[in-house]
Amino acid sequence: MWSMAFRNLYRDRRRTLATVIAVGAGLFAVLMFLGYIRFVESSLASVVIYRDANAHVQIYRQDGPEQLAAAPAEYSLNRDDQALIHRLVADQPRFVRASDQLVGVGVVQAGAESSVFLARGIDPAFEAALQAESPLASQASPLSDDGLLLTRQLQDLLGYPDKGSTLQLFSASYANRMNAIEAPLAGDFSTGIEAIEGKGLKAPLALLQSLYDTDVVSRVAVQLDDRSHAGTFRDWLAAELEQRAPGRFEVTTWNHPQIGQLYTSFMGFFNLVFAFTGIVVFTIALTTIQHTVAMNVADRTREIGTLRAMGFGRRRIAGLFLRESVLTTLAAAAAATMLAYTVIAAIAAAGVQTQLPRIAEPAILKLQLPPLWALTAIACAGLGIALGALVTARKRVGGEVRPGRRGVPLTRLLAGAACLLLAFGTVLPAGASETAPQPSAGQRAAPDAETLRRWLREADLARGGWGSYKWKLTIHTEDPAGATDTSYDIAVRDGRALAMTTAPRRYRGEKILIASRAMWYAKPGLRKPVSISPQQRLVGEAANGDIAATQYARDYNPEYLGVEELDGRPCHKLRLTAATDGATYESIIYYLDRNTRLGIKAEFLTSSGMTFKVAHFEYRNRVLVDGEEQPFVSSMKIVNANFPERFSLLEYARVSEASPPESLFTVDTLMTL
Amino acid sequence: MNLVELESVSKSYRLGEVEVTALDSVDFTVQHGDFVALTGPSGSGKTTMLNLIGCLDAADSGEIRVLGQPVSQLDGQALDTLRSRTYGIIFQNFNLVPVLTALENVMLPLHLHRLSKSGMERRARAALESVGLARFADFRPDQLSGGQRQRVAVARALVTEPKLILADEPTASLDTASALSLVELMKELNTEQQVTFVFSTHDQRLLEHVGRVVELRDGRLTSTDDSAADTSTALQTGKSEVA
């Protein structure tokens, strides 16, 4: 029967050739696309594993992948954790190397330019080993023991500082303290991810740890001999760690959504596209084959009748047409496969470059079509086509085809879904508009702007915003990572302030200067003060801008919102909107005691209007102003609006009038104080 | 036991709005060793009757029994088996598979019998030899004359050693010499190997050589002529006429 099928195909060779070309073109497209998908998959995996130095397996504290950015200190691995992990993995047969890594954010400055960075602290030797084994050609500079690597985009934002020039990194330490370090620019690298290419910074682990003033790490990355073992290794390691420290660790692999976000998101997308393309091509190929079978059956009714008369059953005769379809598909598959490998070889020889999705650098296009993958794809397509041909053949050779239950056509389903969506789309906004808050009516007559500004100035005065004073400030900060206490000597003069750290001992000598709406940070070891932008002042639970007194009357425009009671005290409620770029916050809801005009509560808002911090003030101190005793702030408690367990308590003591010299408030003398 | 029995068999077809009666309450039997010709004008129901005898079609009413078994009780698969074991069929236009050689065409029905390839080939060659085409075994149909093709078709019908060979106008596409030669062959098989033949024809030249002629007109049997008992004499006459 195979011989007969082959001869029938040969007899109708024009039709056979047309069918082979149509099906072969479809299969060729599938194979080429499969090769491209494999290339993208492999490249993205290499970016995640090697270029991003994630290696194959990563060990975090439990929930670390999700929570590290919000609470780095709480979700980091301490020295004991690190030692345990290194001890466990080192003896495993698949183990190649492991390294501690630290991630963090901050601001990098080069001269007058500054920009936000996303840094990764890596052991330079580990980094070098990974890069050496990366299948992707890397143009990155090697990471040295003391230099920084910045992406070209970040260097551009910093005005292209010279190689070797000193950069300043500024950030909050893991104890929520301000800190800065200096290091030379050693070269450039690419994060491999377009979205963060403008923020990429790579630093030696020890250097980054010194910036965050910690010996913890964010994770331990483990390189294995092959990525196919990552899942097994993760399972084993997770079980071992769980046995030793239940609930403390989380083990991930390179393709974890939080680690290989680029990989998982794009492969999900590509697989969807591939499935869609595959279905379209398969449908075309199947339809072509079915059409050919139908034509063959129509042309050979006499032959079919003869065979039926001889006693050949419907199944056997359909089998003949099935054999013809299988042969046609095989011929198409063979032609498509040969053509695909030829084209792949030609592309490889030509060294064509392509841009991978969200990858900053171009990559050499190397389509990857392992024979097993090609065979599987061809076999799946061939099997589907054969089944389709069999159904058509059996139907066409006169078999009874019982009508099935009528299904709902896809178009009707889609139309129904679209109608539902439209209906929801119409109903929801209408419903939403019904529940939208209505503007309040009947507000009291608002005080004029001059009065409001006067109230603000009086309130500022009680917080040291004006005049010349000195006091001792103690900040007690608590968050899930622990509690810290820091003390400062504060001196203010006409709206300018200098804060000098007095305790703990190791932080002595650190200074923060606020002058003319600008802010600087200095500490022993830095060559020059670090300029702090308004946004950077928000660093820490108690923002740097909160350490010294603030002048709301100068920096914000007030708007009267009415009277509201707080703990039984009637208060004027004001909305303060930043009037200058030097303001620390975008806007503040400020409550002034209606009787004393002292600020007793402030809600600090994000640009989107969400409250992110709330401050409460108390005024138990007293100072003399023009010979008259006035209340002065004694404590300020700042609570994180989203995480109430995170707060800072600022206590003001030994407040007195003073006459600090003018030279105390100039940046030129800050390093010499 | 009768080989085939038709009892009050009727069959009609619908052509558009008109219902055409092809067979109307026909009673008919075929016995082992018969050599029967169905005759009558075009549209008289000859082909319909052959189709019903060969279980290629189902009767609207009446009963058809093959070897005593009512065919209406058989399912599709049993009918396929019955056809492959009981019948050999010869068509007016030979209906050889064009891509197969004469030998392969003859081997074709043997695929339904559990035989080795060599066994099939041996039997097919014997069948070809019996119709005098042994040396044309490797010829494809388009390389054979009309008479040769029909002989291949006869060999194909014979190769499974069926109990009954049905032939629908087997000589219609042949010249007189080939037609008489074919009838001679069929008669020879009938007398020497006791192969039963039922065939339709309206060729008067052939009717002179058959033992039993059944005439159909408007779907009814109008006569059954069993008088030509000495078929061999008739055949000799036919042969002499051809000569």
TrEMBL record, chain A:
Compartments, as annotated in UniProt: Cell membrane
Coiled-coil residue windows: none
Lineage top rank: taxon: Bacteria
TM segment ranges: 16-37, 262-286, 325-352, 372-393, 413-432
InterPro entries: ABC3_permease_C, Lipoprotein-release_system, TP_0789-like
Membrane topology qualifier: Multi-pass membrane protein
Domain Uncharacterized protein TP-0789: from-to ranges: 496-670
Subcellular location, principal: membrane
Keywords attached to this entry: Cell membrane, Lipoprotein, Membrane, Transmembrane, Transmembrane helix
Residue ranges of every copy of the ABC3 transporter permease C-terminal domain listed in the record: 278-397
Keyword Nucleus included in the entry's annotation: no
Keyword set includes Transmembrane: yes
Family listed: Belongs to the ABC-4 integral membrane protein family. LolC/E subfamily.
Name of the protein this chain belongs to: Outer membrane lipoprotein-sorting protein
Biological source species: Microbulbifer halophilus
From TrEMBL, chain B:
Matching CDD domains: ABC_MJ0796_LolCDE_FtsE
One Pfam entry name: ABC_tran
Region of interest (Disordered), ranges: 222-243
Record key words, sorted: ATP-binding, Nucleotide-binding, Transport
GO MF annotations, alphabetized: ATP binding
Domain spans labelled ABC transporter: 4-243
Taxonomic superkingdom: Bacteria
Matching SMART domains: AAA (SM00382)
Name listed for the protein in its UniProt record: ABC transporter ATP-binding protein
The organism of origin for this protein: Microbulbifer halophilus
Organism ancestry: Bacteria, Pseudomonadati, Pseudomonadota, Gammaproteobacteria, Cellvibrionales
